[in-house]
């Protein structure tokens, strides 16, 4: 295997508070190549914190520390605001869960996407518009010319999410972090959006960090999976082997989900073991 | 138990009218667990709200236990069915303790012995005495949903209406709440109508399932048929397919 795109060793995030320090993320280590890496966990497991830490988006007074955090050979530790500005949106992009809150409500769709090109690629106005249009086409929006002139509130959830993806990919980043990109969408739309992501990742050779709470989606979509609990990475495995996961937490999570294919009279509930946090 | 004939619900007027539900007819037997699934905007929640009498301009013939329940509801009508909503934080008053939240329906319906009823309702849903005087923000999501279920069941209604009761919860907590609902259903011989977008949840809890799309009823199937894919409409098939996860396009 060639050098990984992203290499993280002992990444920790903590928040000092009145009652002591909260460790949102503790000593996470992993490598990401040009692949689809899934991160699953329940709320509070630190999965979103991890995505944000990689982009340098942990707000004050949060403390980020890492032994190593290398992106394409250069370290992300100690980046200045200026360094981050060059990376974010250009080399590393992030898709958020809900397009409603992540798009600028008073700016037309086309202008928002074109802005990315002008800012990061230094394109001319004309060229930026052309790129924005072709990107809208690439995320399979049927009439890109019309959508180009619309405002975010005129779009459905699925369309909004596609626009977000278009905006994040127009600068052709090397790494895409997707934080619950399909959780706000209906199942049928969800799969369409995943198909678009899948195609773009394959065609452009991007690395994808796919954060989700949905085991079914992650195991069917990703190549590898990290399972997180209480700010720690409990287990890593190939996505297709998730059903045979070893860690008791992962096994309990799988057993707790009602499944269409395996009817159960009673769902297994989770007994949390303090040992897992050691 | 519950019969709906030709339910239609519209919102707005003039040329901005939205037909949320168009001509839905259903009947739910006593003691049955009936599920309604569909994507957002399919009208599934509106059907449930219309049954509870929470939709003002519905045009329907609704009978509950043989009695017509259209028009203005009496207190006795309302006691027949109680509602559990999706987001337990939004459906509990932030400045009411659990005790106050549970006391309110008892006061409205003039039931005696609130102390014992509250204590019993809490123990039924697996909450201890220590939770009784807490505020919603001092409870976890799963505990809040338990309070919402206790509040619904404290009047001993024969019918429980559940609108996405677990979709705001983590999988492990969802499992606990689903187990609780099925245990309470057995113990109290409840008739349940459950609305969800999750086929797995609905198939787990319900015997019969209605599939809705664009405000219309697509079909009603048994849970076994839903699991085995023995369904007639293409839309239901697409839903089942989609809920099994992502399928990489072959090219």
CATH H-tier superfamily of chain B: P-loop containing nucleotide triphosphate hydrolases
Number of strands of chain A: 11
From the structure provided, what is the oligomeric state, counting identical versus distinct chains? heterodimer
CATH architecture of chain B: 3-Layer(aba) Sandwich
Biggest sheet character of chain B: 6 strands, mixed
Strand content of chain B: 25-35%
- Here the CATH topology of chain B equals Rossmann fold
CATH top-level class of chain B: Alpha Beta
Q: Given the structure, what is the number of helices of chain B?
A: 10
Please give the domain count of chain B: 1
How does the helix and strand content of chain B classify structurally? alpha/beta
Q: Give the radius of gyration of chain A.
A: 19 Å
Characterization of this structure:
The complex is a heterodimer of chains A (278) and B (251). Chain A has 278 residues and is of the alpha/beta class. In chain A, 35% of the residues lie in helices and 24% in strands. Chain A has ten helices and eleven strands. In chain A, the strands form two sheets. In chain A, strands 7-8-9-3-10-11 form a six-stranded mixed beta sheet, with helices on both faces. In chain A, strands 1, 2, 4, 5 and 6 form a five-stranded antiparallel beta sheet that branches. In chain A, a hairpin with a 2-residue loop joins β5 and β6. In chain A, α7 packs parallel to α8. Chain A is globular. The two termini of chain A are 31 Å apart. With 251 residues, chain B is α/β, with parallel strands linked by helices. Chain B has one domain: Rossmann fold. Chain B is 38% helix and 25% strand. In chain B, the strands form two sheets. Chain B has a six-stranded mixed beta sheet, with helices on both faces. In chain B, strands 2-1-4-5 form a four-stranded antiparallel beta sheet, covered by helices on one side. In chain B, β7, α7 and β8 form a beta-alpha-beta unit. In chain B, α6 packs parallel to α7. The model of chain B has no long low-confidence stretch (mean pLDDT 89). Chains A and B meet through α8, α9 and α10 of A and α7, α8, α9 and α10 of B.
